[in-house]
């Protein structure tokens, strides 16, 4: 920790006695503000208190309910920037208990942009989403969302954050700060395999999923639901009752763990470990579930997460929902869901997916009618009201609304007010 100079101490006490805020540069050198033993610092890192207080909540405007809501809970598909939407969800008594200061979401999974510097398009070359925020800005972009996600998570809830080799390591540290180091349950390595011709390095074939709980020990975990299946059953036979066994000697049979499910005995397999190599990527095994959405995840991946860390009836949430894999699997497993995305293609793909569900994982089997869900707009307002704001308020509103960095600059002689951050594509702006 830096030692304060006499001038700095004098300046600080002057600020404090005059009731003035301390400049940002003092944040990391003031001993009483640095509660943590260690911390990741980077440019533009705001204090959690500021993030929670300064984020503008956007009203959620219901656009259409699919199916008969009957006035009760309907699943939520929200079109908007998740930063403000998450804040808005803290005003929703179905999702957050304000009096108790407690969230009601049992499970969160997010698969955000990975800071790849790319623009992703659908199979018909439609704009899907931008992944252009990099460096410290990316860290702060995602950290802000994680702060709100923690608030919305139930006391016995869990969160899974999916990243890759580019930024995962920073988020292990940031998640430790936000959720507490002791609340890390697993660092999951998803080894999706696939062919490679890599000549100058080891082929990159894994992504990382950090699994934290809100409160270690209170969290739900269902190990039986997610055992590793048997790829090769040739060593096993069935007895007259249909039970599986392995012949050890001529006389002795060994019966492995199995359960009677849907009219037959099913081998339970080994307990799952933190390296998952039995779930292919969409690129290696498209299957009938593929919708052409870039970086769409397999339903099997979400099946494991949802089965392990939630129970039927629980609310599961994905704030970077993309093609809606979490919602599709939640429907199949009887969970309630909230999905947020700021891309038009994503919202369109999700609506279509939900209305064409099949009952089995991988989108197979009979048709499945989804539970009623409501599509909300967040951040689309009465334009006249916004236009009538005084110029400075209008500028502030628009910059905040679209998560732009407030930084005037010029491009080809044209003065611009700031930079657009990840996710929001141009179509979404107008
Ligand atoms: C990697 S994709 C998610 C894919 C998803 N897991 C699936 O299985 O289809 C990331 C998504 O995050 C969305 N996104 C990025 N920034 C966002 C933001 N600020 N608010 C809401 N959604 C955002 C993008 O539009 C994109 O659809």
Layout of helices and strands, plus pairs?
Blueprint lengths: L5 H12 L30 H7 L5 E7 L8 E5 L2 H8 L6 E2 L4 E2 L1 E6 L7 E4 L5 E5 L3 H18 E11 L4 H12 L4 E8 L14 E8 L23 E2 L5 E4 L5 E2 L3 E4 L2 E4 L7 E2 L22 H11 L5 E4 L6 H8 L3 E6 L2 H11 L3 E3 L3 E4 L5 E6 L4 H5 L3 H11 L3 E7 L2 E6 L6 H4 L1
Parallel strand pairs: 2-18, 2-21, 5-8, 5-17, 9-16, 17-18
Antiparallel strand pairs: 1-21, 3-4, 6-7, 8-10, 9-10, 11-12, 12-13, 14-15, 19-20, 22-23
The structure holds S-adenosylmethionine.
S-adenosylmethionine binds next to strand 18.
Fold and architecture overview:
The chain is an alpha/beta fold. It folds into four domains: 6-35, no CATH class; 52-195 and 203-227 and 270-378, Rossmann fold, CATH 3.40.50.150; 237-265, no CATH class; 383-429, no CATH class. 25% of the residues lie in helices and 26% in strands. It is built from eleven helices and 23 strands. The chain has a ten-stranded mixed sheet with strand order 1-21-2-18-17-5-8-10-9-16, with helices on both faces. Strands 11-12-13 form a three-stranded antiparallel sheet, with no helix packed on it. A two-stranded antiparallel sheet has the order 3-4. Helix 6 (299-309) crosses helix 7. It is globular. 33% of the residues are buried. Bound molecules: S-adenosylmethionine. S-adenosylmethionine binds at residues 81-82, 111-113, 129, 293, 295-297, 320, 322-323, 325, 340-343, 346, 422-423. The site of S-adenosylmethionine (SAM) has 21 residues, from strand 18.
């Amino acid at each position: 920790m830096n030692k304060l100079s006499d001038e700095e101490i004098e300046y600080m006490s002057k600020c404090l006695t005059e009731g003035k805020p301390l400049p940002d540069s003092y944040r990391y050198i003031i001993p009483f503000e640095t509660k943590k033993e260690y911390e990741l610092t980077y440019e533009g890192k705001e204090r959690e208190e500021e993030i929670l207080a300064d984020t503008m909540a956007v009203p959620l405007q219901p656009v259409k309910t699919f199916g008969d809501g009957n006035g009760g809970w309907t699943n939520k598909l929200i079109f908007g920037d998740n930063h403000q939407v998450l804040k808005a969800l803290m005003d929703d008594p179905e999702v957050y208990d304000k009096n108790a200061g407690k969230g009601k979401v049992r499970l969160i999974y997010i698969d955000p942009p990975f800071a790849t510097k790319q623009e992703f398009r659908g199979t018909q070359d439609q704009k899907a989403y931008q992944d252009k925020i990099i460096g410290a800005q990316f860290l702060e972009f995602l950290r802000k969302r994680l702060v709100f996600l923690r608030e919305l998570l139930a006391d016995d809830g869990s969160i899974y954050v999916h990243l890759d080799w580019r930024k995962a390591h920073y988020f292990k540290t940031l998640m430790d700060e936000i959720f507490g180091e002791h609340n890390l349950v697993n660092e999951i390595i998803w080894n999706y395999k696939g062919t490679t011709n890599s000549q100058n390095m080891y082929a990159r074939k894994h992504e990382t999923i950090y699994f934290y709980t809100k409160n270690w020990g209170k969290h739900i975990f269902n190990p039986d639901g997610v055992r590793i299946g048997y790829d090769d059953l040739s060593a096993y036979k069935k007895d007259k009752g249909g039970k599986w066994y392995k012949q050890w000697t001529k006389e002795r049979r060994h019966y492995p763990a199995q359960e009677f499910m849907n009219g037959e005995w099913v081998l339970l397999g080994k307990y799952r470990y933190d390296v998952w190599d039995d779930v292919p990527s969409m690129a290696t095994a498209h299957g009938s579930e593929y919708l052409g959405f870039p970086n769409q995840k397999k339903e099997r991946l979400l099946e494991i997460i949802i089965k392990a860390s939630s129970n039927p009836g629980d609310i599961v949430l994905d704030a970077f929902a993309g093609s809606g894999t979490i919602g599709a699997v939640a429907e199949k497993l009887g969970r309630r869901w909230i999905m947020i995305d700021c891309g038009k293609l994503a919202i369109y793909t999700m609506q279509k997916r939900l209305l064409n569900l099949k009952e089995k994982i991988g989108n197979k089997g009979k048709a499945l009618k989804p539970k009623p869900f409501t599509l909300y707009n967040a951040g689309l307002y009465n334009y006249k009201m916004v236009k009538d704001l005084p110029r400075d308020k209008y500028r502030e509103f628009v910059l905040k609304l679209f998560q732009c960095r407030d930084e005037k600059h010029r491009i080809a002689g044209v003065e611009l007010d700031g930079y657009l951050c990840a996710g929001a594509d141009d179509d979404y702006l107008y």
